[in-house]
Hints:
Blueprint: H1 6-21, E1 29-36, E2 41-42, H2 54-57, E3 61-66, E4 76-81, E5 85-90, E6 96-102, E7 108-110, H3 129-132, E8 143-148, E9 155-160, E10 166-171, E11 184-190, E12 193-206, E13 212-222, E14 227-236, E15 242-243, E16 245-252, E17 262-265, E18 267-272, H4 275-278, E19 297-303, E20 310-316, E21 323-329, E22 335-342, H5 345-348, E23 349-356, H6 363-368, E24 374-375, E25 380-390, H7 393-407, E26 413-414
Parallel strand pairs: 18-26
Antiparallel strand pairs: 1-2, 1-11, 3-4, 4-5, 5-6, 6-7, 8-16, 9-10, 11-12, 12-13, 13-14, 14-25, 15-24, 16-23, 17-20, 18-19, 19-22, 20-21, 21-25, 22-23
Amino acid sequence: MRSVNSWLVLASFAACCILVSSKSGYSKEKIIPLLDATDSLHHQDFDLRDHVSAAIASRWQLEVRTLHGGMQEGVQLLQVDNGRLRTSIVLNRGLSILGVEESLTGERVFGWDSPVKEIVNPMFIDLESRGGLGWLYGFNEWLVRCGLEFAGHPGTDLLRSNTGETKELDLTLHGRIGNIPASKVQVLIDEDKPSYLRIRGVIEERMFYGPQLRLTSDLILVAGKPSIQLEESIQNLSASPQEYQIIYHTNFGTPILQRGSKVVPAAKSVTPMNDHAARSVDRFDLYDAPTIGFTEEVYLVEPWVDEDGMTGAVLHNEAGNCGAMMTWSAETLPYLTIWKNTAGIEDGYVTGIEPGSGYPFNRRIERHFGRVPILQAKETRIFRLNYTYLDSSSSVKTAISRINKIQMDRPRELHHSPPELPKFE
């Protein structure tokens, strides 16, 4: 395997912050539209060479495909290759990232084997089916966002209706954002920084007498580097305050997940979500082989942060020579959920490492614990995350050292009982 420079593992997020913080300073930034609902614009036969010099275009491969057949009919897939990784972005499904592959071999780097084999068009998803679990009919992405009005488990919450009455509202699993098509997608390249490419997308979750939230996503790639950087924002477009929730449901299967794999978070505390998870909390960070009949385990992590407000986690295989490092800003993503689902391969052998504005309890419960943030009128919040593929023992060790540096000698509190949940009338 090729080695990842330790500089990349330690500094890739810092490079991301430097890059995105100077967006307005881009001197020769080329904005290339791929999709725009305002003008009913859609570039199916996209060729980067039509927009930038051959020297710049040679660093990148971009392809927009429309899928056909079955429940994926009409799905638009954008694939971006930086010479090291090929990233597949589903434009119809909230800009979710289906998976990431090695450019040369086509082997999977990030992703998993879901029982859902097609990339399901949201028009075939009924979020309210199976008691609010309809989201699962399309769940097969490596990275899918949960939110924005609500993000957790299905159930009920109270809503002040347009008539001024307080009514009970049914919330579905993980919200709507993952099944809303992008309204706008652009490719951005600065001719002074041709090694950087950004995919910018806009998704709007809004309704009359309801939320008016806009997610803007910048996915940032560096030519030849095994990393993906995200800078995203949620804006409240309303004239009134609005609650929001977001969880970055990031899912890993083989080759990183296997018997003996380990997750290393910078954890202040770890709490089981329920009594079932509590029975295995002492080994929350270790993974078993695929187990038929396995019942999911969920652990709620409160992370430690470094002096810059950053935190992170590493997931690696048993041998410690393959893995993923995630770092993110805890200012707006102060919580981490670890979802373990080491079921049979056919049933979805997967783990979720999920930074969020809260945990995946129903919104009513999250509000009780003060974990449902509010955006004031026109206010915007920023979310920063970085994902790095670790393809050698040295890169895994360097990444773990980064997490240990955040943890320092500070203790990790392990709770053996789930939180006591409120009982609503």
